[in-house]
Amino acid sequence: MKSAITGIHPSGNLTRKMTIVQQKPQPAYSIPVAMVADILLGGTAADAAAVAMETHTTSGQTPNKTSILSQPPTQR
After folding, report:
1. What whole-number distance in Å separates Cα of residue 64 and Cα of residue 54?
2. Is the dihedral of CA 8, 9, 10, 14 positive or negative?
3. Quick one: pLDDT at residue 54?
């Protein structure tokens, strides 16, 4: 599971980079319709996406479209 999640995962205009450094099984339990096994994953994730933005000049020129780069990744 760790190797399947760690990596770059594109989805449309969004790209998510995930690095799983820890996986810790939690106690399993049952409910009337299923057996539940939780796994706590620890690591980092960062998203990047190109965002189109219109800019307007004060001299009445044609608006330009520019791309804004995403912020640096944050760790949790």
Report:
1. 6
2. negative
3. 80
